[in-house]
Amino acid sequence: MKSRPWVVAAGLLAAACGGSPPAPTPTPIVEAPQIFCPADVKVGGVTGPSQVVTFAAPTVTGGTAPVTTTCTRTSGASFPLGTTAVSCTAADATLRQAACSFNVTLTGFSLAVTKFEAFGDSLTEGENGAGPKPNFVDTPNSYPAKLLALFDANFPGQGVTLVNRGEGGKKVEETLATLRKFLPIDRPEAVLLLTGYNNLTSPCGPGQANTFACGVATQEVADGVRECVRKTRESSATVKYIFLSTLTPPGTGPKRIERDAIVETNRKIRLIAAAENVTLVDAYPLFIGHEGEYVSIDGLHLNPPGYQAIADAFFSAIKATVPQTPLAAIR
What we know:
Layout: H1 5-16, E1 34-36, E2 41-43, E3 50-53, E4 59-61, E5 68-71, E6 77-80, E7 82-91, E8 97-106, E9 109-111, E10 115-120, H2 122-125, H3 143-154, E11 161-166, H4 172-186, E12 190-194, H5 197-200, H6 212-235, E13 241-245, H7 259-276, E14 279-281, H8 284-287, H9 291-294, H10 304-321, E15 324-326
Parallel strand pairs: 2-8, 10-11, 10-12, 12-13, 13-14
Antiparallel strand pairs: 1-4, 3-6, 5-7, 7-8, 9-15
Helix pairs in contact: 3-10, 4-6, 6-7
């Protein structure tokens, strides 16, 4: 029987191609990305309102390359006291995502004193000489308000309070009357004193530093400040610390007190602080070279940066004087 040519050709073709045609290769399946965050980070004994913290990078598996990882805060960033949540996300080339999170907790110190009271005149009250007349009291920028903000940042959640008893226009003897009135009622643990400007404004104005009247006025301030310290101790058994500030230097405006009169008053204030065993807050040097920025246009009152400088001086003295205890580590 004769072979059919087309059958032979088909067989030869099949033999030449190695049999049946191969099945198509399946596309490999790539799993969606997965991300695993590091364990919670806990740092104790932080001495300021924040600290740099480092941590391991999240681990990422799967995903179609390239896979990118981002976190809301990076390792090496500064973290504030308290607990901060860090969220991390992994995203691949096909826009699939995975997320994880962990906490960074910083604990600081507990301050042994939580109730403060500030006494003085308009520079405690917060008057800004650049505002509308007869006066402009900028309470949020007063030094007690700025000092309280420092307490809140460095000792968060500890309930620190600061009562501002500053009264514009009051002389040192009137500051004495104010503290004698309120100390038994308010019962603070620490008292802040900055007073004496109004005793000097008239007799120690421009060109009057070497007059007899100015000399008398500087001594009045010294005597009044000493009495404020002593009556503070007598008026309240709760007061453990007294912080006494020097006066700030003048600016160039019409209400300025002669610099030499302030220097002499501060010399006496420093002696009183040492003799009465209270903590000196030497604000004066912080203003030197910054008078144009810190002192208002009237030459006496302060701009917000000046009140911040006083707050910084009080805060440094308080931290150096009042005991602090490391907070227990959070488990």
